[in-house]
Amino acid sequence: MNDLCADIGYKSINHAGEQLCGDHIDVVEQGEGSTVIVLADGLGSGVKASILSTLTSKIISTMMAEGLTLEDCVETIAQTLPICSVRGVAYSTFTIMHIVDSREIELIQYDNPMVILLRDFKNYDYPKTEMSICGKKIYKSVIKLCENDIFVAMSDGCPHAGIGTAYNFGWRREDIVDYMETVSVAGYTAKTLSTILIDEVNKLYAANPGDDATACVVKIRKREPMNILFGPPRDRDDCNRMMSLFFSKEGKHIVCGGTTSSIAAKYLGKPIKASLNFERSDIPPIAEIEGVDLVTEGVITINRVVEYAHDALGENKLYEKWSFGHDGASMICRLLFEEATDINFFVGRAVNPAHQNPDLPINFNIKMNLVEDLWGCLLKTGKRIKVNYF
Hints:
This protein has helices at residues 46-65, 70-80, 173-184, 190-204, 239-248, 258-268, 299-313, 319-324, 328-339, 364-380, and strands at residues 4-13, 23-31, 34-42, 92-100, 104-110, 116-119, 122-123, 129-133, 136-144, 150-154, 213-222, 225-230, 252-256, 273-274, 287-288, 294-296, 342-347, 384-389. The strands form four sheets. It has a six-stranded antiparallel sheet. A five-stranded antiparallel sheet has the order 1-11-10-6-7. β4 (92-100) and β5 (104-110) form a beta hairpin. Helices cover 33% and strands 28% of the residues. The chain has two domains: 4-222, PPM-type phosphatase domain (Phosphatase 2c, domain 1, 4-Layer Sandwich); 225-389, no CATH class. The chain is of the alpha+beta class. The protein is built from ten helices and 18 strands.
């Protein structure tokens, strides 16, 4: 094992007029540092395509995660997929990205556009071996991973974008390579990179996609610890123990809440420098304490972070707001969503007397639910989470 990890993000758009996407992605953790990612593209669009792609990705990801061979996977798919009554074939293309011990990646590609590898933010032409399994031409590659490697897998809806409108022959793979080389240097997360790519595809389709389009991005990066403190401890005598554990952890430190920041400032022996600069009218301003990377208000700010977290797991429509915002919620999002890979939560269970007013919508349960909701969302994005309650 090394200190590398994979940041995985993907996004799809449906064929115009269809409620279901004909592409499907499955991500299966295989253990520490090993993951199987499958992008399948079902024949046609709509319900049939969705069934074909879902079956394909589920079968391959489950079988490969259990250690079965590629030959067994392909043979099982050939015998399992239903036959299309119109075309007379059972057809679903697929791309497999198998990360092993965060050391190397195995790429297996069947009829989807070739995976793009950006190394040092430039296109890298990796070796491919052609194989024939059950009469299907499959390309296999084994690549040693390097920090900042970016892998871009996509369905054919991406290079088909803009055919007959913006481009005569669609958005060619080399054009997509140029586009991704340009945006990759900004340091975006895998989810944001996939969103940017699919948003551009949607524009080229004039927001009327002629095919399902999916992009899956895998970004290789070093592990980055992060620590977030939210709320004072239930027992006042635990303040020093909580602060000692919090500040002894490696990585950046985020303190949320007025009372919590006062305790942190007292522990560090440093003053709180409050700000009256409202970056947003609905988010309280941040403060500063020497020795703390970010100091914010508590419940209102974390509530907005949770809202952004749910969006990031889904449509990711709000990424521009938190990517460039200077308010407390946006800054927490960038630290947790983009920088951090391993996050330690230090959560105080003290009941805030100010929250006991029955006219206020805040209570202790809501506060705890917010924290659980946040770390639950972060867990789904592949972060390592550890929660400590006081």
